[in-house]
Queue: 3 jobs
Job 1
Amino acid sequence: MTNIKALLLATALVASVAGTANAVTVTNTDAKNQTIGIDWGNKEKVDAVAAGKSVTFECPDGCGVTGPWGFSWMAKGSDVATWNGESIVLSNSPKT
């Protein structure tokens, strides 16, 4: 999949969940399945992100997210991340 096609897919997936307030979305544009960890402080969860798919989770008060990229961040609100197998790109969706 070309980078442009992957970007269009990720944009479409993000647009489909744009109505969900305080939801963080991680899109896996890599050809391999990936695993991410989500930490809300009082509970933790490990979630699989299939190749070419997205996972969305609530994160209204902030949460820690870690993944296969050797990178972690404190997510909040409507953060959006895309993993392409080599690096992660973070962006923020406009809040409505």
Job 2
Amino acid sequence: MGIELFEHAAEAGAQLLEVDSSAESGNAALLSLLLLTFDVGRILVRPEPSRHDLSIEVVAAGAPLPPGLSSAREEEPWWRLVGHPLARVWVPEGALSSAVCLQFRADEQSPRIVTLEARGASLGVRLENPPD
């Protein structure tokens, strides 16, 4: 799946700088691609419907980006997370490789957890702990 890429970013305290996505036509909640740009590099996430899991890969500096990406910086939940460090990463219990949880900010700093989940040919993004 490539979760180790997010684990390395978390170990480095990587700060989220930018988010780009490609939404399914007519549904901004379901994505076909998600590009997270950290101060240590870029990670591309996409669903792998043939394997029922996520594909997570590094996009090298200067490499061409997939077509159809647009900024998601102002979209929910990303506007809450840009500028914050990735603190922890895990696969939710029972998800095998179809989902990954990203915790931004340390436990004592009002963490925000986002789950990225393969949903067939789409990628779902869910904020797990919205503010009160």
Job 3
Amino acid sequence: MNSRLIAALFLLAVCAAVEPTPASAATSEARVRRIILSSRHLGAHGLGYNSRSLSQLSRRLTPADIPALISLLADGDLTVGVQFALASQCEATILPVRAAAIQHQMNFLDASDTLSLISDFAGCTPEAQKQALEMRADLEKLRQEEQVAAEREAKRKTDDEARIQRNGLKMADPTQAAQLTRAEREEVFHRSLKAMGLSEDGPMTPEQKQLVDRLYRSMVLGEVKTPPN
């Protein structure tokens, strides 16, 4: 067997390992799920997770299981268990948890709880514990920035809606309507369609198409002076 063929076979093996098939990914998730559920212990509030769970998970899972753990975040019943499972992998988990939070695969608060578990887990190195605390602070800053941006966007939408509504009222008065720009009239037109449950790009009956065309010519172009029936 020549060296090129050996190199090609090696590359194929690496690709297969890096990109698991859907079937193997599902098998991995099922195995990880069983491990998480079997790590629960009876406590004051029934079956749950504790420091003993962390120790067991650290022995039964490896960093290679982190992608499967991230996928299981979508299962709300496993949220706490996945946090403990991720935390059991210490330093290897920190960056994937950050990425999952930023991509909204994981709630910021859940990510913070996971990093807090790492910082308190005796099975993690002091350096990993320190990194987890630093990343927790970083995620909190990102969470606050995202919240501010979301509030700003919500206010913008509210202000836009109020402005479009005021312009819609002006459309009833020819004098005030003439003062609106075409872009403002189009905003009122699109708001009217949305209120009727219609969209220019959506499916419509011939009668609805006629109505939309008449509305457009009336509201945007000012060609039709009588309101549509």
